[in-house]
Amino acid sequence: MLQKWIIILVLPILAACSGQPLQTGTSSPALPKVVAVETFLADIVRNVAGDRLTVESLMPVNSDPHSYQPAPRDIIKVSHSNVLVINGAGLETFIQPLLENAGGSHLEITASDGLPPLPDPSGEHPDGDPHFWMDPNNVIRYVENIRDGLIQADPQGNQFYTDNASAYIVQLQLLDAWIVDQVAQIPPANRQLVTNHESFGYFAARYGFQVVGSVIPSISSESAPTARQMAHLIDQIRTSGARAIFIETGANKDLAAQISAETNVKLVANLYTASISDANGPAPTYIDMMKYNVGQIVNALR
After folding, report:
1. Are residues 100 and 249 in the same domain?
2. Helices (H), 113-226
3. Considering its fold, how many domains does the chain have in total?
4. Is 177 exposed, middle or buried (CB count within 10 Å of its CB: 0-12, 13-18, 19+)?
5. Which pLDDT band holds residue 223 (cuts at 50, 70, 90)?
6. For residue 248, which of 281, 272, 265 has the smallest C-alpha distance?
7. pLDDT (mean) for 81-87
8. Domain containing 129 — which CATH number?
9. Do 66 and 207 lie in a common domain?
10. Rounded to an integer, what distance in angstroms lies between the CA atom of residue 105 and that of residue 115?
């Protein structure tokens, strides 16, 4: 089911229904307030909600949803909202306890609903790989789900959300075409990825990369590799001829740096995967994030 009602707070969800339709997208106190869990997801939601709704990110910039520990301020933020948007597919394991602490009722939109997940190579994650957003074509489904959820929460905004979603989907299609063109600069033999953890499966499948291995051989960034797993990754890098190790911002660089030194491959330590940057950084939106990451990958491998 695209949306489901869960317990979180007692507030009128559809207060906007009692008034006259708004002639512009300007936000009103009577309209639903939205919280999206991750920063990249909040940006995607804003592109659909426009200036009609207030959209906040639950997690701050540079937070990792795999290891995030909610703070009291998060309960307050959620309790002041009417709609919660999650990535889904088991990414946000902390959400249910947070909702139980907040109490009340809330409209939940699962952005990834309906997308078939890739299996978790480690077998640790029963819901499969939740990193759907690493392929912009999957984000088109996110946008459709978010559009439908916002229309459910605010029926009077139907045309506004529909138009915004259509315009943003065009941008995502252009992003996908741009990535294809950029990746074409990399010789096919060099299209090999070694990452911090297994978060690039959808990206690799869409754009013709081979994932050689990961420093943390798990969908979750919280796992820790054994000495045997590290030795195996070193052998994989040497055998494959992979040219770089890519890790995301905020990740511990120590293990990747050891492997980089052992294999004599470059370490690219500043990709944005689970979070966008702040407004002054290189990746302040989802589209900027993807373009920045692709630029780093192309520069390292071409």
Report:
1. no
2. 136-153, 158-183, 201-207
3. 2
4. exposed
5. low
6. 272
7. 95
8. 3.40.50.1980
9. no
10. 26
For position 1, what pLDDT does the model report?
Answer: 44
Cα(239)–Cα(158) distance, integer angstroms: 54
Q: What is the mean pLDDT of residues 99-117?
A: 89
Which of 92, 91, 143, 156 lies closest to 117 in space, CA to CA?
A: 91
How far is it between the farthest Cα atoms of the chain? 67
Contact in structure between 46 and 55 (CB atoms under 8 Å): yes
Domain boundary (119, 153, 178) is at 178
| pLDDT value at 226 more than 90 | no
Yes or no: say if 31 and 82 are a contact pair by the CB < 8 Å rule.
Answer: no
If phi over 0 gives left and psi between -120 and 50 gives alpha, with beta otherwise, what is residue 50?
Answer: left
| Same domain? 269 vs 145 | no
Q: Strand 244-248 and strand 210-216: pairing? A: unpaired
DSSP bridge pairs for 84: 35, 108
217 band by pLDDT with thresholds 50, 70 and 90 = confident
Tell me how far apart the alpha carbons of residues 114 and 144 are, in angstroms, rounded to a whole number.
11
Handedness of CA 203, 204, 209, 215 (dihedral sign): positive
pTM of the prediction? Answer: 0.88
pLDDT digits (tens, 9 = 90+) for 256-275: 999 999 999 999 988 999 99
160 and 274 in a single domain? The answer is no
Question: Which residue range forms the structural domain that includes residue 250?
Answer: 181-301
Same domain, 53 and 101: yes
Q: Rounded to whole angstroms, how far apart are CA atoms 110 and 114?
A: 9
Same domain for 160 and 40? yes
65 vs 67: CA distance, rounded Å: 5
167 & 202 share domain: no
Domain boundary among the residues 151, 178, 205 is at 178
Mark whether 192 and 174 lie in a shared domain.
Answer: no
Angstrom distances, CA of residue 26 to CA of 20, 107, 116, 151, 166: 14, 21, 36, 16, 19
